[in-house]
Design a protein that fits this description.
9 helices; 262 residues; flat; DFO; disordered C terminus; disordered N terminus; mainly alpha
């Protein structure tokens, strides 16, 4: 089971104690005031300092639910913000989701931030995305089981790397450059093969499920058939034994003949 799936199960199953409710309320207060800054991150870090593992699990579970809800609300109204403000807001939630252990939400928002920067970097200096950033993102996605998004990340990393080199008028492909390209392509192939593997596993699981259902039906039918066949077989044995008994006693083979006069 992946970490994100385990987190979802925990979120559904763990109740909150009073102390945890107070901690969550403190963070919620900051979010409701839209204080999406370093101070709120510091408060979040302090809240996550638990005395025991169980308390930490409960606190992180409650905070995951809170941040998912608040992120949906905040991101829904992000269109009217400036690019800088959008990036600051997205980065805040990236940090927050990383702290509370919501890997899926963290990577999803990190992807959005990288795409936003790429779309605006020609107009705004300093928003360029390096191939290292895409490569790091893609590797994180691969490590956490998000293979399709990992493939996209590796493709963007490769594109960024080649674009950076081509734009240099004095560029000459070195052995190191060739090694980097080969490395990125290899990781992309790994992610692609894992997608195919997951697809095959899913299809196999569905096939086995269908096959199991069909086998259950067949077994049920077979049991009925066997019951009929075994009944007929037993009747045949009884009839054969009766004939042998009648023969040994000098009786007619057909019971009905005993009523006839000889």
């Amino acid at each position: 089971m992946s970490s994100s799936h385990a987190a979802i199960l925990l979120d559904r199953c763990i109740p909150m104690s009073d102390s945890i409710s107070e901690s969550v309320a403190l963070v919620r207060s900051q979010l409701e005031k839209r204080r999406l800054d370093g101070r709120t991150i510091q408060i979040l870090e302090s809240v996550l300092v638990a005395r025991d593992v169980q308390s930490l699990l409960e606190t992180r579970s409650a905070l995951r639910q809170l941040f998912r809800s608040e992120a949906l609300s905040v991101m829904g109204g992000i269109s009217g913000m400036t690019v800088d403000r959008k990036l600051i807001t997205v980065q805040f939630f990236v940090w927050a989701f990383a702290l509370v252990g919501d890997v899926e939400s963290c990577l999803a928002l990190k992807y959005e931030a990288l795409v936003l920067r790429e779309s605006k970097h020609l107009k705004i200096h300093g928003l360029e995305v390096s191939y290292e950033e895409w490569l790091t993102f893609a590797k994180d996605s691969l490590d956490n089981g998000f293979y399709p998004i990992a493939v996209q990340g590796f493709e963007r990393a490769l594109h960024c790397f080649q674009t950076e080199k081509v734009e240099d008028p004095e560029f000459l492909m070195s052995s190191e450059d060739a090694h980097i390209i080969k490395y990125i392509k290899k990781l992309k192939d790994v992610a692609t093969s894992l997608i195919a593997s997951c697809s095959v596993q899913t299809q196999s699981a569905e096939y086995l499920k269908r096959k199991g259902t069909q086998e259950n039906i067949c077994i049920s039918c077979l049991r009925k058939t066997n019951h009929v066949a075994s009944s007929m077989f037993r009747c045949g044995i009884k009839k054969r034994n009766m004939q042998k008994l009648q023969s040994s006693q000098g009786l007619p083979k057909e019971i009905g003949l005993t009523d006839k006069k000889i």
